Amino acid sequence: MRLIADSLSGERGGEQVFSGVGFALETGGSLVVTGPNGAGKSTLLRVLAGLLPASFGTVKIEGGGESFPTVAAASHYLGHENAMKTALTVSENLGFWREFLGEPHLESSEALEIVGLADIGHLPFGYLSTGQRRRASIARLLVSYRPVWLLDEPTAGLDQVSELQFAALMKAHLDDGGMIVAATHQPLGLADARELRMGLPV
Amino acid sequence: MLALYLRDIRLHVRAGGGALTGVIFFLAVIATIPFGVGPDLNLLARIGPAILWIGALLASLLGLDRLFQSDRDDGSLDLLIMAGDRHMLALTVFVKCLAHWTASVLPLVAAAPLLGLFMNMPPTGIGASALTLLVGTPAITFIGAAGAAVAVALPRGGLLISVLVLPLTIPVLIFGVSASYGAVAEPDPFLPPFLILCALTLFLAVLGPVAAALALRWGAD
User: Fold this and answer.
1) How far is B138 from chain A (nearest CA, A)?
2) pTM, whole model, 2 decimals?
């Protein structure tokens, strides 16, 4: 499976934030997107996810088969927001996404155990701390299978132990034949990740 | 899809007050009318169906702004849009509309017969109004979904949605009220306007979600 982006340009509010970005990721490959604030890292991820139209260039996935015909269908997107409902319990949130997203992978309880939240699955999501919310959100990546993970500042709010845990999770996903594109300011602990440096538009 | 329906119902119930606010607003509108119009029982009975319909229409517009906005605020909307290859986005919108209708509009329909008593309506009139509301209010939700999708990016879109949606709901109102009148006022027919009302609901059940899905798809930022 290959994820290919070809001379992508993205704009926000009519202003071009980046242009000419191209890369190709093979199975098991990862790409870390770095750059100063406002360089267009989040915009790039949203363009990859198909949430924003690219003003120029194309993104496609090759060899996705019937289950993953487009990049959007083949990707998990972990944005700044956690996509969880504060009024529902953590397990209910995960259970919903597991059923809705399809391609069920781990059970909600297993995923919660992996991110270290096994004993608080019954609590409403709104009661959790920032770091716990992030971890619950990371558990969402595990309950339903997607080959590509698009991660926008995935470790924001995580403590050091959880960061290491998350690095191990990402490694397991890559060994499993997955792909990761992550925008970040901090090192994520991905050993042989390629780096895409984005500069401010000039 | 069933999961989405159940989740939205649960959210409506847990967040609390959504349905109750609508019913209380409906009650307030209906209870004010006799004071304004005066205690002429025949007049009240005559305008009853129209007042019930207008009250239900306004009350059902109340919660529409949260239809997509809460999902947008916590990022769920992005994932719903991305899942478009598995679940057609229009279908997702349709299911969300159904959940919204069940949780916040159905209580209005259930309250309508009781409020009909306030208007001194005859039993057949009350029955006909409740039936037309049951059939017609989904159409209002489907039109409202399109309005809510257009205004999803606006922080205070509530009033804007009502203003956008209200003119489009007029046909539903007209046929709903004329069917309710048809049941009590003798020469007027009941069935033709009622069937047109059913047709409007079916038609908008397709058009509304498709329009809303388009707006959501291209309104993402």
Assistant:
1) 24
2) 0.92
